Amino acid sequence: MNTHTGSALPTRHQRLITWINEVAAMTTPDAVVWCDGTAREYAAMLQITQEAGTATPLAKRPGSFLFRSDPSDVARVENRTYIAARSREAAGPTNNWIDPVELKSTMKQLYRGCMRGRTMYVIPFSMGPVGSPIAKIGVEVTDSPYVVANMHIMTRVGSRVLEVLGEDGEFIPCLHSVGKPLGPGESDGGLWPCAPLEQKYIAHFPEERTIWSYGSGYGGNALLGKKCLALRIASVQARDEGWLAEHMLILKITNPAGKSKYVAAAFPSACGKTNLAMLVPTLAGWKVETVGDDIAWMKFGADGRLYAINPEAGFFGVAPGTSPESNPNAMASITRDTIFTNVALTSDGDVWWEGIGYDAPGTLIDWKGAEWVQEGESEPRGPAAHPNARFTARASNCPSMASNWEDPAGVPIDAILFGGRRPSTVPLVHQARSWNHGVFMGSIVGSEITAAALDLKTGTVRRDPFAMLPFCGYHMGDYFRHWIGIGQRTEASKLPMVFLVNWFRRSAKGKFLWPGYGENSRVLAWIFDQCDGVPGKSIETPIGIVPVPDAITPPDGVSADDMRELLAVDVAGWRKELADIEAHHYPTFEDRLPAELAAELAALKQRLQ
Ligand code: GTP
Ligand code: SPV
Ligand code: MN
Questions:
Q1: How far is the centre of ligand 3, averaged over its atoms, from the C-alpha of 469 (Å)?
Q2: Which domain holds residue 471?
Q3: Which residue among 6, 23, 190, 473 sits deepest, i.e. has the most Cβ atoms within 10 Å of its Cβ?
Q4: Is the pLDDT assigned to residue 558 strictly greater than 50?
Q5: 422 CA distance to ligand 1 centroid (A)?
Q6: DSSP H helical segments within 489-539, as ranges?
Q7: Where are the alpha helices (DSSP H) in 273-337?
Q8: Are residues 6 and 134 in the same domain?
Q9: Angle 213-216-221 from CA coordinates, rounded to 5°
C-alpha cells in the first residue's frame, strides 16, 4: 500500500493521476491509498473491517471472514442501474436511461464530500491475465475495504497492472462509494455502510467507457470489474470490435475416450452457472473441469473458431443450496481464504446456510445478526442465510479448475447453452437447427426471477434474453443483431452448436422432475455426442433437435414417464409461448428486431401448426 501523502505515487500515468486527484477533491476522503494487491494488503483490509466490527473471523476456516450487509443492501438493484448513453435509443427499451449530463450532475452532488471520515482506495485491476492482449484494465476507486478485499479475490489487482498501464495505457475508470460520509469522531458502529435505496445509482456511461456507482456495497453493485465492466461496458466494446461479452460459464468436458470439448452456458442469475461449471459427473468415465463460472469473453481465433476466456480470478457464488453433495468443488474452494456475506454463523465459528446438506448445529446467528434456531420455534422466522448470500473464493483454490483456465488464447467453444428456470413447456434439452435458430432460442429465454436482484418479485417468469437482460450495455435489439452477425463471420461448421436446457421442469405437484447438479452430466454427454455428429441419438421436431427416448439414461429416481415428460414437445405450451413472444416480447424491440429472428418465429409457428 502506498499513501498519497506520504510516499511517491506508484504510477506516472498522468491521466490516471489527474482523475484520482479530481475524485479525491470531490469526495474529500481522509486519506488516499494506492493498492498493491499483496497478501499483506488483503490482511490489512480484513484487520480494518474486523476492528470496525463488520468482519467476523471464522475459526473453522483459515483466512476466512463473515460480513453481514445492511438488510436493504443484499443484491443487485436493477431499477437503480442505469445505462446513461447520450440517447435513450442507444440504451434501448430494456435498460433504465437518464441523460448522462443530468445523471452526472445528480451524482456529483451525492459524491461531494461522500468519503469524509474514510480512506479512499485506488485499485488497479485487470480483467483477464495481467498483460495479455485480451485483458482489460480498470481502476476502481472505493471507500470500502470490503470491496478492496473482494476485488483481490475476484480480479488481478496491483502493481503489475500499473506497470502494464505504463504512462498512457487505456483503463476504465470505476468510481465507487458506499455513500455514507462520517462526521468528526463518528464511526459505522459495527454496521454495514450504505445509502438509502433512492440514493443508490449504478451508472454506466458507455460512450465514455466510465462507471459510477454510489450507495451500495454489495456484489455486482460495488465490485465494478464484474457486471459493470466485464459485461455492461465490455458488451458495448464487443459490439464495436466484433466479439462477445457474455453472462456465461465456461467448462471443459472430457469423454471416456479422453476427447475434450468446451462448453459455454448462459443462465440468468442464480440459475445454475457455478454449479454446472464445477459439476462432478455421475456418468462413469466423464470428467468436467472449470474455466469460468459467470462471465465469458469470446473472440474469433485465426482458425475461424470462437475462443473464450474467463476475465475473472474468483467466484462470487450463491451460498444457499451449495453442499458437499450438490457442489463438492465449491465446498472445497471455500475451506479457506474466503469472504462470506450474509450467511449464518455457528457458535463454533463456522458458516451455515439452507441447503448446506446438514442441520444447523445448535443456535446460530442469522444473516441479520439475530439468534436463530432451526426448529421448535413458535414464531415463524425467515431463513438463517439470505437467499442471495454469497461466498467470494479464489479460483486457484478450486480443485476442478482446468489446467489451461488462464490461457490468454482462450479455449475453443464447441457448444453454447442457453437456459433458465422454466417449470413447464421448455424440455430438458433441445438443439437449434442452425445458428440463427440458436440466436432465436437465446432471445426468447424466460426464467423465474431469483433473489439475485433485490427489487423484483421472485418466482415470476420474465424474459431474460441470453441471461443478459440486466447486463447488456446497449439496445437489446442491436445486441440480437450482433449475435446474428457473429454467425455470418465464419463458416457454419466452425460455429458452436447451440442448445436450450432446462433443469427446472416441475411435475403437476410442483416437484422438480430432474435431479440436476451432477446428473446434468447426462445431458452434457448427449450434447458432446451431438457436437461430434454421433448418429442415432436425436430426432428433429418442430421446436428443434431432441434426444431419442433412449439417448439419455434416466438417473435414479426419474421414471420412464418422467423422462418422457422431460423430453416431450408440448405443442400447446409452445403455441402459447410463441403467442406471448409475438404479442409482448418481440414488439419491445420495434424496428431493431432483426428480420432473421422474426423469420425464425414465423417458421417455428408454421412448424407447430
Ligand atoms: P449467479 O452467480 O447469480 O450468476 O448464479 P449462478 O447462475 O452461478 O447460479 P448457481 O450455480 O449459484 O445456482 C443458484 C441456485 O440454483 C443454487 O441454490 C443452486 O443450488 C441451484 N441449482 C444449481 N444447479 C441446479 C440444478 O441443476 N437443479 C436445481 N434444482 N437447482 C440447481
Ligand atoms: C448475478 O447476479 O448474476 C451475480 C451476482 O453473479 S452479482 O455479482 O451481484 O451481480
Ligand atoms: Mn451472474
A1: 11
A2: 245-313+404-607
A3: 473
A4: yes
A5: 13
A6: 521-531
A7: 273-277, 328-333
A8: yes
A9: 60
